[in-house]
Amino acid sequence: MPKALDISGRDQSTERQISAPYQSGEAAVKRAESASHLTTLLHYYGLKEQPFGVTPDPRYLYSTPSHSEALSALLCGIEAGRGFMTLIAPPGMGKTTLLFRLLER
Fold first, then answer.
1. How confident is the model at residue 41 (pLDDT cuts 50, 70, 90)?
2. What is the CA radius of gyration of the chain?
3. Which residues contact residue 99 at a Cβ distance below 8 angstroms, ignoring those fewer than 6 apart?
4. CA distance linking residue 56 with residue 51, whole number of Å
5. Do residues 71 and 102 make contact, with C-beta atoms less than 8 angstroms apart?
6. Hey, how many other C-beta atoms are within 10 angstroms of the C-beta on 46?
7. What is the separation of C-alpha 78 from the centre of its chain, rounded to a whole number of angstroms?
8. 95 in Cβ contact with 87 (< 8 Å)
């Protein structure tokens, strides 16, 4: 069976990866530190859960009059059977969160 050689000519089949266990240990420490930091922040601000997740949570939508109008327009469009509707706003204005609120209905 031929040996697996890298470009430097070293035999890869017998070399051990020494850094792999340390990487997983370091990752575990970072996760623990992150969880501890999160718990501290939640306690400091009096929060019961993390307010920022991977996907927007419609419970945290601050519904302004323009949000209500957009939601109403989307609902009317769906009820009227419109084939295509757009929701246009600058980044961070709550478009995705508003759509999640719409999906809850």
1. confident
2. 25
3. 74, 87
4. 9
5. yes
6. 6
7. 28
8. yes
What pLDDT does residue 48 have?
85
Whether residue 57 contacts residue 103, with contact meaning beta carbons closer than 8 Å, is answered with no
For residue 5, the cross-strand partners are 11
Q: Where are the domains of the chain?
A: 1-51, 58-104
- 63-69-70 Cα angle (round to 5): 85
- Any idea what the Cα angle at residue 79 is, between residues 77 and 85, rounded to 5°? 20
pLDDT tens-digit map of 58-88? 888 888 999 999 999 999 999 999 989 999 9
Tokens of 29: 């420490």
Is the per-residue pLDDT at 42 higher than 60? Answer: yes
The DSSP annotation for 60-83 comes to G----HHHHHHHHHHHHHHHTT-S
Sign of the four-CA dihedral 43, 63, 104, 100: negative
Are 102 and 72 in contact by the 8 Å Cβ rule? The answer is no
